[in-house]
Amino acid sequence: MATHQSSTGDQAGASHQIDSQLPALKQAVAVALDYANALGTSAAEVAISKQQGLSVSTRDKEVETVEFTKDGALGITVFRDGAKGNSSTSDLSPEAIKQAVKAADDIAKYTSKDSFNGLADAELMAQDIRDLDLYHPHEIDAQGLAKLAIDSETAALDFSDRIKASDGASANAHTAAKVYGNSHGFLNGYCSSRYSLSCVMIGEESDGNMQRDYDYTVAREFSKLLSPETVGIKAAEKTFNRLDARKIATGKMPVLFAPEIATGLIGHFVGAISGSSLYRKSSFLLDSLGKQIFPKWFNIQEQPHLLGGLASANYDSEGVATIERDIIKDGELATYLLTSYSARKLGMTNTGHAGGIYNWTLAHSGQTFAELIKAMGTGLIVTEVMGQGVNGVTGDYSRGAAGFYVENGEIQYPVEEITIAGNLKDMFMDVQAVASDRDMRSSIRTGGILLGEMQIAGN
């Protein structure tokens, strides 16, 4: 067993509740902002985060690594008449903070000016700070996490004699405290928690080749994790179902993206409507605001204030208030995703998306994933994609894939070593259905997505 501790202090720090540190972190941010103001800067913003946690990984029911983490840093950005300087420090003593602020200011004095630099506008700062139920501390030690991982492996290995080995399981418990403040007088912080368990299994095919697959669970509250037995059995079942995969003939057919792959498909859409891609003119969705991107029945809503949501937040990383909004309304693009910088570059309004997106929920079309398989008739279910064959400028999409061949609405056999290809613009308009049983484990909450047709390269 290997034990790694990437922290200062003792191992008990991994379970000590981090919310007790929040007042000191806010004070550190206030010290930095006061000193930046004393130096005569135009503006400044400061972010600080502290993380602590415990991770245990196992393999074949033996503990492999135990990692305690306890770290954090303060980062400061100073503006001087359009010039910008950055600095950071992990030492939160007043003297070290002042040195970091001065270093950032010195850098700003020598960098070129950019009129689009600066804080987000003061009137956009979050005022209504709600308790979003993000912090649920739970005392668990390395032995307890190891048991979760080993129990998941045990359940998986008992699933079938064709499941030959574990490729590892991991159980994690982490908490964090984050504080952000700027020269507008905004200064706020919050704590969060995240727990997860994953399991990867290896199965043997008839010819001796191996296949692997995995499953995982993640939650803000420890009690809301799936049981380790459930995770292990799902990992084993998915691995077992991949055994004796084959290629299919080259041609065109409907494609049903499994929920965890559908999130990636929508992820390409996120990149295309992000401000940095737009002002660099490196997006296939330039000048698409208000235009139809998806079928008219298709909707995406952003819900940043869901209680306990994995991507919930009152404000973005610039202090801008997050709001519930339509991303796609009746198939049309309702908004871009803009930070203060990209909004100024584009002559548009900041949308509060510095740092990411917040709980996107795709409206479904009424059918479950199983019902979409039957409705598809003959086609391909995609459960894995590989490679980087996505061109953000043109929207051209070509990726290696694996999954299952479907005929007459029934899964026939697993498929591997194929390529699926299309153009994202066409693919988005060709969405036929979205399954009602959503994957809730990421910031994009969606069921499986059925496309009418894609090009398949196989035999």
From TrEMBL:
* UniProt entry tagged with the keyword Lipid metabolism: no
Q: Does the keyword Hydrolase apply?
A: yes
Domain Metalloprotease TldD/E central: from-to ranges: 135-243
Q: Where in the sequence is the signal peptide annotated?
A: none
The Gene Ontology CC terms held by the record are:
cytosol
Swiss-Prot/TrEMBL keywords:
Hydrolase, Metalloprotease, Protease
What Gene Ontology terms describe what this protein does at the molecular function level?
A: metallopeptidase activity
Cite the Metalloprotease TldD/E C-terminal domain residue spans from the record.
Answer: 250-458
What InterPro entries does the database record attribute to this sequence?
Metalloprtase-TldD/E_C, Metalloprtase-TldD/E_cen_dom, Metalloprtase-TldD/E_N, PmbA, TldD/PmbA_N, TldD/PmbA_sf
Family matches, as Pfam families? PmbA_TldD_1st, PmbA_TldD_2nd, PmbA_TldD_3rd
Q: Which domain of life is it from?
A: Bacteria
Q: Which residues form the Metalloprotease TldD/E N-terminal domain?
A: 44-108
Biological process (GO), any one: proteolysis
Entry's family note = Belongs to the peptidase U62 family.
Query: Which PANTHER family does the record associate with it?
Result: METALLOPROTEASE PMBA (PTHR43421)
According to UniProt, the name of this protein is Metalloprotease PmbA
- What organism is recorded for this protein? Shewanella maritima
